[in-house]
Amino acid sequence: SFTGAIPDHEGYFSQADKGTLFLDEVGDLPLPMQVKLLRVLEEGAIQPVGGKTKQVNVRIVAASNKDLNQLVRESKFREDLFYRMVQAQIYLSPLRDRGSDILLLARCFLSDYSTKNRSDKRFSDKAEKKLLTYQFPGNVRQLQNIVKLAYINSRGVLIEDRDIILADTSEPCTMIEIPKEGIDLDNEIIPAYYRAALKIAKNNASEAARLLGLRPHTFRARLKSLKR
């Protein structure tokens, strides 16, 4: 509920009554919110703003990419909430330790992009080897973004290793091949990236901006200048 509201707004716990509620990145919950969550778990009850207390029966499944034990030691996560929540733990190894699963995921992402854009692209053997031997600092989302960018970079049906841009953890910057004849960055490369991003995003400027790591208004302004 909120000031000026006419209909009641049903919260997540109320909606999940007699069901399951998934809490993502629970390690990022601020301490005041942790207190409220602990109270719900202990009492099995919620109290909407301006409403009466309501009993709920909700199964909680939580996920975190942070070490909750470490957060407890640093007093950033309540110890009582930790032991109240952690009744069964499932540890998922990081992407860099998943072996051939990396290729299965990458092929799946590529298949999705190809289907959406009515194309039939695939990885070359060298491209797959590059993905397989890379020590991913991130998770599956990082792999998804890498595959999406490789899709944009590729000019043919086959995605080559040069199309896959990876952060080099041993060098201060990522090395990109430049042909001997040089490139026209402003009139050739940048416009090509913008067109490719728009194509993948199905002309959704906000989504295209996200693919290129730009703010939507910045993307639109630059796109407008390129069309002049």
Low-confidence regions? 169-175
Q: Strand sequence of the main sheet, in spatial order?
A: 1-4
Summarize the main sheet.
Answer: 2 strands, parallel
Our count of helices gives 10
What is the 3D shape? elongated
Please trace the helix and strand order, writing H or E for each element.
Answer: HEHEEEHHHEHHEHHH
Percent of residues in beta strands: 5-15%
Write down the Rg: 24 Å
Strand elements, count: 6
Terminal Cα span? 49 Å
Secondary-structure content class: mainly alpha
Give structural attributes.
mainly alpha, 6 strands, 10 helices, two-stranded antiparallel ribbon, 228 residues, two-stranded parallel sheet
Describe the fold and architecture.
The chain has 228 residues and is mainly α. 45% of the residues lie in helices and 8% in strands. It is built from ten helices and six strands. The chain has a two-stranded parallel sheet with strand order 1-4. A hairpin with a 7-residue loop joins strand 2 and strand 3 (54-55). Helix 2 (31-43) crosses helix 4, helix 8 packs across helix 9 (205-211) and helix 9 (205-211) packs across helix 10 (216-226). Residues 169-175 have low confidence and may be disordered.
